[in-house]
Write a structure and sequence with these properties.
By secondary structure, this protein is mainly alpha-helical. The protein is 65% helix and 0% strand. The protein folds into 2 domains: 66 residues, no CATH class; 43 residues. The protein contains 7 helices and no strands.
Length: 123
């Protein structure tokens, strides 16, 4: 297995069969399928109750069709994208102030202004 992991460009010390199986399962959980039993069958689980008796494990065309619906690409969750977008907006709001402070002598001028204000401020 280590050789396959290396060929895939994965870290052989941090990747295990369990991790790969869990990642595969998570991808399948997010995949809309006509019958949820396909997910369990593709993962290799024994189907509960009498469902296993009626499920056609040999219908490779249907299994392939359902498998092809899965997106194994490296994607970022929408929630993470939203968080990153909000952070970017905050940085964009702060950028004019940052640029202003980068001008020569501006930081010192602001410090003096704040110091003067605090000294003159009535209590």
């Amino acid at each position: 297995m280590r050789g396959w992991l290396q060929k895939a460009g994965l870290n052989t010390k941090r990747t295990s069969l369990y991790n790969l199986r869990k990642a595969f399962y998570n991808v399948l959980l997010k995949t809309p399928m006509d019958d949820p039993m396909f997910k369990e069958a593709l993962i290799g689980h024994k189907l509960p109750g009498s469902r296993g008796n009626y499920f056609d494990y040999h219908d490779l065309d249907t299994l392939e069709k359902e498998y092809m619906k899965a997106d194994f690409g490296r994607s970022v969750a929408k929630r993470e994208v939203t968080i990153l977008r909000d952070q970017l907006r905050e940085y964009e709001k702060a950028m004019p102030i940052y640029k202003l402070l980068q001008k020569p002598g501006m930081a010192e001028t602001l410090k003096e202004m704040v110091s003067d204000y605090l000294q003159k401020k009535p209590e």
